[in-house]
Amino acid sequence: MAATEVISVPISTIGAKIGYGLESTSGSKPATFTQILGVKTISAVNSEPEQLETTDLSQTQFKTYIPGLMDPGGTLTLTCNLDDNFQTQWEGIVSAAATGRASKLRCWFEIKLANMTKAFFVVGVPANLGINEVGVNAVSEVDAYVTLEETKGWDTAVTISPYTTGA
Question: What is the pLDDT of residue 167?
Fold first, then answer.
């Protein structure tokens, strides 16, 4: 059988989604995720390992290193359109995450690109909203922050359901 050449296919961010889900069992990925409204940008979560120098006196030309701890960047930032619906949803996420933490259940976030089979997962603590700069003839936006507790990385995507209210 002949080898088949594999090429990289660029993927657009059109249709990307971010959702949140709460653990039902401590330490397990949630089975359901809900889309977060009005997200315009999602900050990078790309952990670079710290380099620990191990050079000893026997080295005469190059320093030597081993990988150290990885820093996920501390905060996931979501820049969102600010309206009553987003504000209400985010307040609910913050409240649900706090309730879950009291029972040792954590809040997960799933970042799903439309044409990828896997999604990227992080676990974190959402913070209360502030307000961004307000200017003339501008869209009202707000940065929603999530303090990262753990970067789970790429894993099997979970369907992200629309946000709904009421019955």
Answer: 56
Give the helix/strand (H/E) hosting 40: strand 39-42
* 27: in domain: yes
Q: Using CB atoms within 10 Å of the CB of residue 108, give its burial: 0 to 12 exposed, 13 to 18 middle, 19+ buried.
A: buried
Residue 53 has pLDDT above 80, yes or no: yes
Measured distance CA(35)–CA(19) in Å, rounded: 4
The answer as to whether 91 is a domain residue is: yes
Question: Mind giving me the DSSP string for 77-99?
Answer: EEEEE-SHHHHHHHHHHHHHHHH
Structural domain that includes position 83? 19-43+74-161
Q: How many CB atoms lie within 10 A of CB 38?
A: 20
CA 109 to chain centre: 5
Is the model's pTM score more than 0.70? yes
Is residue 158 a contact partner of residue 31, using CB atoms and an 8 Å limit? yes
Number of domains in the chain: 1
Q: Which two tokens stand for residue 84?
A: 């009553």
Please give the backbone phi and psi of residue 41, each rounded to the nearest 5 degrees, phi first. -145, 150
User: What's the pLDDT tens digit per position in 4-17?
Assistant: 998 888 889 999 99
Q: What is the mean pLDDT of residues 15-23?
A: 97
In a domain, 96, yes or no: yes
Which pair of structure tokens corresponds to residue 85?
A: 């619906």
